[in-house]
Amino acid sequence: MLIGRDQKSSVIRLEPGAQFHTHRGTIAHDDLIGLQWGTQVSTHLGYPLILLRPSTDDIVRNLERSTQIIYPKDAGYILMKLSIAPGCRVVEAGTGSGGLTLVLANAVQPTGRVISYDIQSDRQELARNNLEEVGLSSFVTFKNRDIADGIEECGVNALFLDVPNPWDYLVQAHSALGGGGFFGSILPTANQVISLIAALETADFGRIEVEELMLRPYQTVSARLRPRDRLTPHTGYLVFARRLIPSGG
Amino acid sequence: MLIGRDQKSSVIRLEPGAQFHTHRGTIAHDDLIGLQWGTQVSTHLGYPLILLRPSTDDIVRNLERSTQIIYPKDAGYILMKLSIAPGCRVVEAGTGSGGLTLVLANAVQPTGRVISYDIQSDRQELARNNLEEVGLSSFVTFKNRDIADGIEECGVNALFLDVPNPWDYLVQAHSALGGGGFFGSILPTANQVISLIAALETADFGRIEVEELMLRPYQTVSARLRPRDRLTPHTGYLVFARRLIPSGG
Amino acid sequence: MLIGRDQKSSVIRLEPGAQFHTHRGTIAHDDLIGLQWGTQVSTHLGYPLILLRPSTDDIVRNLERSTQIIYPKDAGYILMKLSIAPGCRVVEAGTGSGGLTLVLANAVQPTGRVISYDIQSDRQELARNNLEEVGLSSFVTFKNRDIADGIEECGVNALFLDVPNPWDYLVQAHSALGGGGFFGSILPTANQVISLIAALETADFGRIEVEELMLRPYQTVSARLRPRDRLTPHTGYLVFARRLIPSGG
Amino acid sequence: MLIGRDQKSSVIRLEPGAQFHTHRGTIAHDDLIGLQWGTQVSTHLGYPLILLRPSTDDIVRNLERSTQIIYPKDAGYILMKLSIAPGCRVVEAGTGSGGLTLVLANAVQPTGRVISYDIQSDRQELARNNLEEVGLSSFVTFKNRDIADGIEECGVNALFLDVPNPWDYLVQAHSALGGGGFFGSILPTANQVISLIAALETADFGRIEVEELMLRPYQTVSARLRPRDRLTPHTGYLVFARRLIPSGG
Questions:
Q1: Residue B1: pLDDT over 60
Q2: Are residues C141 and C207 in the same domain?
Q3: Tally of structural domains, chain B
Q4: Hey, is D125 helix, strand or coil?
Q5: Cβ separation of D107 and C109 shorter than 8 Å?
Q6: Which of A243, B137, C20, D33 could form a disulfide with A177 if both were Cys (CB 3.0 to 4.6 A apart)?
Q7: Contact at 8 Å (CB) between D72 and C80?
Q8: Higher pLDDT, B177 or D25
Q9: What is the ipTM for the molecules in this complex?
Q10: Do D197 and D213 lie in a common domain?
Q11: pLDDT of residue D249
């Protein structure tokens, strides 16, 4: 549940008897339950609030997180580059806080599946809770395993590595992907991108692409349209490639 | 069907007996039919090619077009901001060349639906053909109507206006959207953004956001990582808002 | 005087007997006086510092300020677009905190002159002190006047307006500039840019250009090259034009 | 001499008896000689032209070139970061086509000096001609020498390396610079930046900075303000540092 006012917003779960506290007054959850989305309400101090269902963007940005998340600007583009659609089988590693897991699960449901690997079980537990909160956990198989020991799936449509050293797992990635399968990764530093491209060049991958998305938010006052001072930080370089059939094969 | 080599690629439909011509030799479609995705082949001059299924990004960029298309960088982000998922009902106007229609149809299938309005029937015909080519036309209802005369749907999850004057259709948009419904638009000029924000401020819409995505492609030679000289052009400013219940209501 | 360590720096004036305090210890000014630039010293807690003469960039960023300053990224480009060189006569309004005044005075010395108008005398006093600190005030004539009442100079090489409503002063600007003279302005909002372009189009100005410079700083650790999270904010849109001889004249 | 119309412009030298040809008609140089800057004239086909003195930006962009030039957006910022002012002594290598040489010579005149090294004499000859054309060659000493063999100057204020392997010349750079002297370089690839930072970290240089300037030009029609489709390409990463006194010294 999201209550937003101007640009400040909070995602909350409505519970009978509870109170929502803001620095400009409180409002009883009971006063909100049963209202239509989009209704405008007020705190006891008269501060206006809007009751809205959170967007995918809102949910991902508000996730309880143990790690850097993959932002919606990148996640949406990843869907386009990896051709994610309902019915796809997608492997990701690591799970992290589940931001991309959530976007992938939402996109492959109801017939597809996300298989998400992570070596840290507590981190994965948090992600699982995040997915359960939004009702998407049934489309995800969480595996508390190191992909260095192999990826158990094969013939998957797409695979995304959000790990610091993706170049170490290209053999496993190649074996999990089907012919022409989609490979993706996100990396914060140029050094990592250089290492990954070099490894992809010598493994059986082709159509390597490196791209970066810069998001520029604007102030939304019609009389003073201008880029915001608070800019979105650098999130990472996106690397994409396609699995090839070894040419000798 | 896509055959790509390095960064140059072509999307073709394989037909028995046909030839694929490049400036570095030709290859018979018969030699490609039945091969696995990801197979590396050669033209009669020995130029290497890769047989790959096109990604959503490739398909959208290669659409036969009568108008400026909405690029995948923007389309992916629109999915996140408008919370598009399998099962959603989404209205768009105009259809244009069907780039966004394709992305939306792909995302709402198999149980959702895209309703796409356009006043120009020839343009819409082209879009319909584009959607048929990729097998997604059964998830779209094309309407050759002017939304100034009203949008026939109501209670839809999201609505996207890709028209030069979206501020003229906010009443229709409000009536088509369900409570808290997601509104979006893309506009090439700052003047249009200013007009749309001003109109949204006085209509019953809230949580207005204006953002711009800049895509920066890099050269993919590991020894010389650098931004490409060929940059992606300005596509447009993205405007998002949420439908509110009129506060007097 | 500047003492910097890593990316943190302070511009100080060395005075006998004084102490420089950091959160990692203090150092006596007497220990610094007489040292060569580039010498590495330590606080009493052993924290290393470097004694460096501040660059123009450092000085401008560290100015005592009453207003938003014009950043060096923009100021350097303004020099290129307005053809500022030793010997030039340049008019600016308003003075603001003197950031651009300082850059202009530094560039036109020893034979040129900057004439700087501002309606607020206290603000101009601060700018004058800033210029005196760096020994450049003798190349500037400060005028505590409103340019709406006219610009007293004529035949100047270049004129820069850092005011919220530059379109109101184009007659004064035209009369102050020599034939083909260089006009420039910086404006934070798109609405202002639209108003200024519209006014320039109908006044006798030509070769109108609008540009924006985005500065992207990187972290400087060789093993982890990446854009910094702290990005430089939007400073403003730069507008340039040339004074024309009225075609009927 | 520059004749510009809208955004198209040509820098020409007026010669009695000559003709200036455009695709929209011709005009005799004799009709232009003696006119005031800013005068609006017409070709024999009635196409309007404006007679303007070129800006530093125009001159640099129109230089006859044998190599990639350093663009004004970068050159102006280099002046700020290297604290270039009238009277400075500055070393640069290589000369290239003389774009930065011109900007530096313009900024240090009349009492300063630019010393410009290049190993290719024909390239340097072109740069010398470019500087002579604009009357700035008397402020430059061209040296057809390899800086690997040493830089003959010492105690210079600033030094700029526009060579592919600046990390190979840090010893020479350190010996040429005075205490706290300003070091700068421009490099097209991330790999080069990584190598240079690594070398600077172990040589006696401090306050290392890496920055990139992105220039975004806008269309200048007041009713349709929008970024241009033709974007400025990636020019290079800027690296700055300060010469330190060796801490053991």
A1: no
A2: yes
A3: 2
A4: helix
A5: no
A6: A243
A7: yes
A8: B177
A9: 0.93
A10: yes
A11: 45
